[in-house]
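Before the break, one more example. Copy the sequence into your notebook; we will annotate it together after we see the structure.
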Amino acid sequence: MEYVVGDKVIMKKGHPCGSNLWEIVRVGADIKIRCIKCDRYIMMSRVDFNKKMKKVIKGEE
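Here is what the structure looks like once it is written out:
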């Protein structure tokens, strides 16, 4: 699946701050996402991201 910087994604497990909505910040072999609620960043491999992602909400186009 193709991901674009700026897309919003909903992850299966929530972040400890209580949100499960994230924004994609960097795309490559690894994907970096930012929590919308608390602005924390997480980087994970594309394989792990595909397993943990629930739904993609397209960003501003």
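The helical segments are 46-52. The beta strands are 8-11, 21-27, 30-35, 41-45, 53-57. Try to locate both features in your own notes.
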